[in-house]
Amino acid sequence: MSGGGGGKKGIPEEHVNHERWLLTYADMITLLMCLFIILFAMSKLDAKKFDEVAKSLAQGFGQVVNISQGSMSVLPATGDTVSLQNAPKTDAMAVISPNVMPPLVNQINAMMQSQAMGQNQQQAMATQAAVAAVTADKASLDKAEKALKEAINKAGLSGRVTLSREERGLIVNILVDDVVFPADSAVLQPTGLTIVAALAPAIEATGHRVIIEGHTNTAKAHPKNYPSEWELSSARASSVARYLTSPLGLDHYMMSVVGYGDTSPLVPESNPNNMTINRRIAIVISTATTEKDRSLASTAAASGSAPDAPAIASEAGVAPASPTLTSTGSTTTTSAGATNG
User: pLDDT tens digit string along 271-297?
Assistant: First the structure.
């Protein structure tokens, strides 16, 4: 091989096209042409369809609209009065539709009346349910009162236990003397245990919630074994509640304890027996109705729309009386009544 030359064969230089802009320009012109064609097609007005739309709008708004031939507006021309008397003769027939407002107002009134009727029906149903609840609760408490009276008479406790009815329920008052709780003590004595045991079956049979309240009298002497009358009254109520739950077996979840001390007397100090009567344990068999139920029932009873209206009105608290002591027998006064607590 000859060693001449030895260089690589040169690659031909690529020719530069200086007219590529024509492609972009042609694309732009084509797009513009399509745009104007679309705009032209959209600008063509179908007079027939325009008239139909105008008449439909006029009917919908309930107005008289003059549509002149060749006019491009559904609104009256400047200076035109919307009426038949002065409508131009060259105009097309005026479109008149009945006013749509009266039917609309009637529909709204009908809807409001329907809603009011629905609310009245709901109120009537709520009242009926309240009357039924109050009636059933009254019957249950009446049954409990009858059973408790029988238990009191059978055990010979008419002088120690009294019954009363209040808006909150049936109240069983156990008068506390030294044979029930000794002075300044919360330990139930055998007589106290006997009283509570005699009442327990009737109390349990009610199925109502039970509140045990402790009350002391207004004797000036201060408790020796407790800081105040509140602690003493609470301890006595707790003793009764514990004995009702164990061993007597009442459900402790349906029971609560309150101590009032001497702040909630049953009778005023002017009563000669106040020291005996106010020193007590109150077992409250609570009503199962709510305040709203009693209010609805009392309203129904007042209007005479509820069965057994007087009885329901009394139970619902139409004219609630102050707590009264309705004893199943005569109340006895003992010498222990004047002791503290």
Answer: 888 888 899 999 999 998 888 888 888
Tell me: the pLDDT tens digits for 73-87? 545 555 554 444 444
Q: What is the pLDDT of residue 256?
A: 95
In CATH, the architecture of 139-338 is 2-Layer Sandwich (3.30)
Q: Could you give the CA distance from residue 264 to residue 272 in angstroms, rounded to a whole number?
A: 17
Distances (CA, A) of 162 to 18, 33, 152, 266, 275: 120, 107, 9, 12, 16
Angle of helix 229-245 versus helix 190-206 axis, rounded to 10: 70
Angstrom distance (rounded) from CA 209 to CA 262: 24
Tokens of 293: 């139920």
Residue 5, both tokens: 């030359």
Cα-trace Rg, the chain: 47
Going by C-alpha positions, the residue among 168, 137, 295, 280 that lies closest to residue 213 is 280
H or E segment to which residue 165 belongs: strand 161-166
Pairing status of strand 210-215 against strand 255-261: parallel
Instruction: Count CB neighbours of 67 within 10 A.
Output: 20
Give me the amino acid identity at 184: D
- Bridge-based pairing of strands 169-175 and 280-286 is antiparallel
- Count CA atoms within 13 Å of residue 285 on its CB side: 27
The total of other beta-carbon atoms located within 10 Å of residue 194's CB is: 15
Q: Are residues 280 and 176 in contact, defined by beta-carbon separation less than 8 angstroms?
A: yes
Query: Under DSSP, is residue 176 helix (H, G, I), strand (E, B) or coil?
Result: coil
Q: What are phi and psi of 100, to 5 degrees?
A: -85, -10
Say how far apart CA 237 and CA 256 lie, in whole Å.
Answer: 9
Task: Return d(Cα 44, Cα 254) in angstroms, integer.
Answer: 85
